[in-house]
Please model this.
Amino acid sequence: MNESNTTEQFDYMMKILTIGDSGVGKTCLIMRYTENSFSNKFLNTIGVECKSKTIVQGNKKVRMQLWDTAGQERFRTITNNYYRGAHAIAIVYDVTDRKSFEMVSSWLAEIRKSRGSEAYIFILANKVDMTEKRVISEQEGAEWAKNRDLYCFEVSAKENLGVEEAFSFIFSKIFSKMQNSPNFLARNQENLQLSRMENKKSKSKKK
Model:
């Protein structure tokens, strides 16, 4: 897969959400994957933010939209609105924080309640570099995910461990299904239309 800086026309538009408790590292994971950068400075995401990455797969240009959602309870209603049309949803927990791991069940239930279960669901176990503070073992996390037929990846945004591999796997699953599933292709077309409308609004404002 090769990256491209062209941002005007795309064959496919992928929408990927990251959800999970506040402080688990959702923003850091997205920044690491899209910009290969990391900051120790902690800032709560307010509402929903989006980063993009363009990838060329064969003769197709794909825009990956990675949506960074707030983990605080007061933003939960806003976050729920973004489940619609998502191709994949990554639930993130912190391996040094058992509460964030226990809350994964709650996030999963919320996805299914909001009809987001048609999307691929992935678990990202973040901060695996903090071995001395770790309270959730790789085996415990993997077994929890396996029992629910979910994919689980051990990652570290800080040390850039497993991040590229996890998102590349997510990309490949979505890309394959887009080419074979009318439902996934319809989501792609809807997201492309929304993106083009946003681009037109942006150009109008500049004029």
Summary: Confidence is low (pLDDT under 50) at residues 1-7, 71-75, 200-207. Strands lie at 2-3, 12-19, 48-57, 60-69, 88-94, 120-126, 151-154. The chain has seven helices and seven strands.
